[in-house]
Give the backbone structure.
Amino acid sequence: MIDSLFIVDNSGDIFLQKHWKSIVPKSVCDYFFDSLKKYNKLNLKTVISTPHHILISIYRNELYFVACTTKEVPPLFVIEFLHRVVDIIEDYFGDCKESLIKENYVVVYELLDEMLDNGFPLATESNILKELIKPPNLLRTIANSVTGKSNVSATLPSGQLSNVPWRRAGVKYANNEAYFDCTEEIDAIIDKSGSVISAEIQGYIDCGIKLSGLPDLSLSFVNPRLFDDVSFHPCVRYRRWESERVLSFIPPDGNFRLMSYHIGAQNIVSIPIFIRHHISFKDVVGGKIEIRVGPKQTMGKTLENVFLEVLMPKTVLNVNLTSNQGRYSFDPVSKLMVWEVGRIELGKNPLIRGTINLQTGAPLPDSNPTILVKFTINQLAISGLKVNRLDMYGEKYKPFKGVKYITKAGNFQVRT
């Protein structure tokens, strides 16, 4: 299946390599680097065929994870495993950064050893891995360095011996709790007049389950027909979903992602934010910029973490700005203008305006720049998705206090 894994930073240096079968020379990544020079990181080819190997890569947290195989494999299977590697590293160390990986080389290699057995996925659940390999802390690190011991447990996790390999046995809690976070990211393109060209929603439901014993849960939605495409955690009984549109599952212990879903452009997506803009380049001396942003009254929700980016043309020397809220900056090297608006209450419409200075004698830009917008809205699922109820052993609970809806902006572009 997977012969080797290479982790590459943004500068193109391979700072970690792991081999499960025979050692693959890291020179095989030259094909990956050639593709990286030819395409940017967003348009990079995910699958690269070489004379003797196949390279499958993902880009997350400003790092490239490149898996190398010698035989044809389902690419999505390998991509899912690479994403699972990143998720496990984030769960263990809080983030997946080059510095953290270098600080915890030993634990990362131990995790990779347990996640793959001779190139085939073995243990990819966080709670099972934490029984095998204890998360690092200062006291355990000092004790291991003095005694020469490792973080790897000598006993096999109890869940690996049952028909529910994602859940450890004998779980007991004084207070039983179940929390669900429904997070949706909206990707949209809006034209000059404010009309929506395209809008799609990528959503996922994360769970924090702390229940004793072996609970059997079922989660139902008010409007499950919204989903165009779904992917589930292995604990979900897919046949019941196909027949009844109900999520029936025996959950892992702790935090995990229950499902991911996609809502396509054919559904009506309401945009919760408005942006009024005016960017013009009148003459060779300069131009003007004015952007006003705020929440739509129909949504009735407060915008948080509002963040705008405008990549100016190369001929722009500087931008002189004033705003009535937030912080702004302009980098004359990258030509990136950033406006950190922050929280916007209902009824308020922050404004930024200023003048644009162009290079002397340079031609006017061919087109206006695109505004990239990011924001967060709590207690709102932009798709209209709602959880109906949570059943457990035939008992009905009202889970609404434990369901948190969050809307975020993914690739939200406004053309000026």
Summary: The chain has a mean pLDDT of 83. The two ends are 47 Å apart (CA to CA). The longest strand covers residues 196-210. Helices lie at 30-38, 75-93, 98-103, 105-115, 126-132, 138-147, 238-244.
